[in-house]
Automatic annotation (TrEMBL):
SUPFAM superfamilies: OMPA-like. Residues 1-27 form the signal peptide. Gene3D superfamilies: 2.40.160.20. InterPro entries: Beta-barrel_OMP, OMP/PagP_B-barrel. This is Outer membrane protein beta-barrel domain-containing protein.
Length: 284
């Protein structure tokens, strides 16, 4: 009885050993599981052809006289400052949007250089002579001017770059856009004795008709004008990111209205001829 029991026990042990070895043998047939690979992502580039720009300029603005303010007739008589951004499509074509501020006509105070004869009366030198003859009585008058005229010029521009020569890139361009023109103007005239000219009355001795003098002007408004410009200049590569830009710009900034030194209404194109220098930063 002992031997069969021993044989049975050996058989059971052999079966158990086989059951343990079989899964291990099967597992060896599967490829090893590889650990998951994590790829570190770098920063996403915003763009390699975009650029930012900033410019300062000197300008000659016309008309040189408006609303009691007289600018120098030579170059320069004004200044500009601007910012912008653009995109370079290829080696020859790029475009940008620029916004430029220009302080046009600024004055607060008396204008002693614009003394004008103002009529304060009428008289008939010879009542028995020509009945149509009447002579004016004059006084000297001067304006007290308060003038704030400013421009914010926004242009969409396109440029043709004419090749790169030892770091220098000449270009030509044109732009169109809008000019926001702000005017706050008052001009009050005074006689030489400090009495306001507005309100002075005088009578025609022939007809007894009464006249009242008033040269004063005052208005305030914001206008939006169509504008366009033509440009030409060159840039110089400082490095892969920075460029110096030097150029000339002719800008027609739309109609402007005011009065000249003789108090006549003036409506003409506002022209700004500018020499500008700035920097362009290429985003890469």
């Amino acid at each position: 009885m002992v031997r069969p029991f021993l044989r049975a026990r050996a058989t059971i042990a052999t079966a158990l050993l086989g059951a343990l070895i079989a899964p291990a043998t099967q597992a060896a047939d599967f490829p090893a599981i590889q650990p998951q690979q994590f790829v570190e992502e770098g920063p996403v580039e915003w763009g390699s052809n975009w650029y930012l720009r900033g410019d300062l300029g000197i300008a000659r603005t016309t008309p040189t006289e408006l609303n009691g303010v007289t600018l120098s007739n030579s170059f320069p008589n004004n200044w500009t400052i601007g910012l912008g951004g653009g995109y370079k499509f290829n080696d020859f074509l790029r475009a940008d949007v620029t916004v430029d501020y220009e302080s046009l006509y600024q004055k607060s105070g008396v204008r002693n250089d614009i003394g004008l004869p103002c009529t304060i009366g009428l008289y008939q030198p010879n009542p028995l002579g020509d009945p149509g003859l009447v002579n004016p009585i004059y006084s000297a008058c001067f304006p007290w001017v308060r003038n704030r005229t400013e421009s914010m010029l926004t242009l969409a521009n396109a440029y043709i770059d004419l090749g790169n020569w030892w770091g220098f890139t000449p270009y030509v361009g044109a732009g169109v856009g809008l000019n926001v023109l702000y005017q706050r103007v008052s001009s009050n005239w005074y006689m030489y004795n400090g009495v306001p000219y507005a309100g002075v009355t005088y009578t025609d001795p022939r007809t007894n008709a009464t006249y009242m003098a008033n040269w004063d002007t005052k208005y305030q408004d914001t206008y939006v004008r169509f504008a366009y410009a033509f440009m030409g200049g060159f840039s110089y590569d400082i490095d892969n990111h920075w460029k110096i830009d030097v150029g000339y710009r002719y800008a027609n900034m739309g109609k402007i209205t005011g009065v000249d030194r003789y108090n006549n209404v003036v409506s003409t194109n506002l022209i700004s001829q500018q020499v500008r220098m700035g920097f362009r930063y290429v985003i890469d």
